[in-house]
Amino acid sequence: MALEYSSSYSLLPQLIITPCFFIFLIFLLYSISLFHVTFTSASTPTTSLLKVEQDQEALTLLTWKASLDNQTQSFLSSWFGRNSCHHWFGVTCHKSGSVSNLDLDSCGLRGTLHNLNFSSLPNLLTLNLYNNSLYGTISINIGNLSKLITSLDFGFNHFSGAISPQLGFLTSLSFLALASNNFRGPIPSSIGNLRNLTTLYLHTNKLSGSIPQEIGLLRSLNNLALSTNNLIGPIPPSIGNLSSLTFLFLNDNELSGAIPLEMNNITHLKSLQLSENNFIGQLPQEICLGSVLENFTATGNHFTGPIPKSLKNCTSLFRVRLERNQLTGDIAESFGVYPTLNYIDLSSNNFYGELSEKWGQCHMLTSLNISNNNISGAIPPQLGKAIQLQQLDLSANHLSGKIPKELGILPLLFKLLLGDNNLSSSIPLELGNLSNLEILNLASNNLSGPIPKQLGNFLKLQFFNLIK
Ligand SMILES: *[C@@H]1O[C@H](CO)[C@@H](O)[C@H](O)[C@H]1NC(C)=O
Ligand SMILES: *[C@@H]1O[C@H](CO)[C@@H](O)[C@H](O)[C@H]1NC(C)=O
Ligand SMILES: *[C@@H]1O[C@H](CO)[C@@H](O)[C@H](O)[C@H]1NC(C)=O
Ligand SMILES: *[C@@H]1O[C@H](CO)[C@@H](O)[C@H](O)[C@H]1NC(C)=O
Ligand SMILES: *[C@@H]1O[C@H](CO)[C@@H](O)[C@H](O)[C@H]1NC(C)=O
Ligand SMILES: *[C@@H]1O[C@H](CO)[C@@H](O)[C@H](O)[C@H]1NC(C)=O
Ligand SMILES: *[C@@H]1O[C@H](CO)[C@@H](O)[C@H](O)[C@H]1NC(C)=O
Ligand SMILES: *[C@@H]1O[C@H](CO)[C@@H](O)[C@H](O)[C@H]1NC(C)=O
Ligand SMILES: *[C@@H]1O[C@H](CO)[C@@H](O)[C@H](O)[C@H]1NC(C)=O
Ligand SMILES: *[C@@H]1O[C@H](CO)[C@@H](O)[C@H](O)[C@H]1NC(C)=O
Ligand SMILES: *[C@@H]1O[C@H](CO)[C@@H](O)[C@H](O)[C@H]1NC(C)=O
Ligand SMILES: *[C@@H]1O[C@H](CO)[C@@H](O)[C@H](O)[C@H]1NC(C)=O
């Protein structure tokens, strides 16, 4: 599952100005020559020294602009002259006249950063290049960026190469996003120097190696996304020191081992994504201690053992995906009533026991999938009270008894899959009321009697399988 984030630093201008590269080139030559003049004559006075610095910043930006693909600079047509603080698009300045923010989110820029001299923007606080077509490596000179920089966003570009360990020099960073690029190699351990980080987005790259234990030094972290990479090895126990974490995305890697007990120290998680790794052992036991967990996925691992007790009372749950593991336990005992639960998939595990009538009290539930388990007993008629249900999949279990007629009052139900069970008796006429039903599978049961002619009301029915 990919994690999306949007960068909210800038509003796209409504107006696209035509590129004016020739004019720009003339200005560039002009400013270079003037720069030299100013520089040589600026022996002492503070005002002209400042002017030199300003010219230097403008020259730095113009040099970078000139290195970008010609066709992709339309947003930068206001970048000319010698004063980058004078209405240059995406540039904001300190009162002193030095550049403080570069905000070029979604500008369609194509090119590299090789010609952006990081040393020449000494007062930069934020650098936002999110969602452009920038490529190439990020040189070790990245460490020459201002020590004051708090936010660096290179997300959604085509950068490649290693993540430079020199990023660890930028100790004021609170937001660092390199997500959705082609970065390779390990996560440098120097990342542990960034003690003020609250958000670290490295997801959707080709990062390899293990998660450095230094990650546990980032005690201010709220959001950590390492998903969709090639990371291996276990979750370092030091993660337990990240007690402020609210979002933890580790899904779609090759992580292995058991979830460290120290995870129990993180009690404010709202979203925990562990899907599609090689984890073993039990699910983290105390994940809902703070009663704020909304989204939890652990799909496609080798988790064993029961559902954590803390999940039973976890009334904040919204979306839960635990399918394709070897989880076990009595399904009637393991789950409670979840007033905001929207989606739950427990399929392809080893749950046993009977279906609880409590599912009927999950009034927001749109999808319930418990197929491919070992559940038995009857389908509780109370399921008819889960009035938002759109998909119900209980196939490949040992359910017996009748199909409750109450399922016929679920107004939104469009998929009803009950095949491969031991259901008996006749198909209730009430199923004919399911006007949104598109897929019905009752195959491989012990159903008897006629097929009710009301089933002919299923105008949208695509897949209708009653074969015994
Ligand atoms: C950009 O435009 C200049 C001037 O017309 C030209 O010399 C240069 O080759 C162009 N570069 C690219 C990458 O198109
Ligand atoms: C990325 O930028 C393009 C314009 O270059 C814009 O159309 C698109 O909506 C942006 N996408 C995101 C995810 O911000
Ligand atoms: C980058 O800027 C710094 C400081 O202004 C300067 O000393 C250095 O020579 C510049 N480097 C390049 C490659 O232009
Ligand atoms: C920039 O960083 C490199 C590598 O860290 C360093 O060798 C160089 O001296 C720095 N340059 C400036 C102008 O700070
Ligand atoms: C980290 O944040 C604290 C509190 O906001 C601040 O006092 C400190 O100066 C910051 N550290 C750095 C290196 O910016
Ligand atoms: C958590 O932080 C404490 C104090 O800095 C340290 O002693 C401990 O080793 C850390 N725990 C882990 C598991 O890294
Ligand atoms: C973190 O978890 C470990 C193991 O469960 C425990 O021994 C330790 O006391 C916890 N640390 C904190 C700061 O809660
Ligand atoms: C949970 O997932 C839903 C649907 O994907 C999303 O809209 C919501 O923002 C997520 N909540 C959290 C806390 O991530
Ligand atoms: C769940 O909540 C009920 C009622 O609040 C309480 O009696 C029970 O001990 C809780 N169970 C767990 C596992 O926290
Ligand atoms: C339920 O889960 C099974 C196995 O994981 C899957 O094949 C099936 O498509 C799911 N049912 C629905 C309705 O999504
Ligand atoms: C399924 O449950 C029955 C009892 O209901 C038990 O005898 C059987 O071993 C279970 N099968 C599996 C594969 O867990
Ligand atoms: C199927 O259900 C019938 C009762 O309806 C029962 O006699 C039979 O043993 C069940 N078969 C299996 C394989 O569970």
TrEMBL record:
A molecular function annotated in GO for this UniProt entry is:
kinase activity
Regions that span the bilayer: 12-35
Q: Which residues form the Leucine-rich repeat-containing N-terminal plant-type domain?
A: 55-93
Coiled-coil residue spans: none
One cellular-component annotation, GO: membrane
Q: Name one Pfam family in it.
A: LRR_14
Q: Which residues form the Disease resistance R13L4/SHOC-2-like LRR domain?
A: 166-274
Q: How does it sit in the membrane?
A: Single-pass membrane protein
What compartments host this protein? Membrane
Q: Which UniProt keywords apply?
A: Kinase, Leucine-rich repeat, Membrane, Receptor, Repeat, Signal, Transferase, Transmembrane, Transmembrane helix
Q: Which InterPro entries match?
A: Leu-rich_rpt, Leu-rich_rpt_typical-subtyp, LRR_dom_sf, LRR_N_plant-typ, LRR_R13L4/SHOC2-like
- What name does UniProt use for this protein? MDIS1-interacting receptor like kinase 2
Organism encoding this protein: Vitis vinifera
| Lineage of the species this protein comes from | Eukaryota, Viridiplantae, Streptophyta, Embryophyta, Tracheophyta
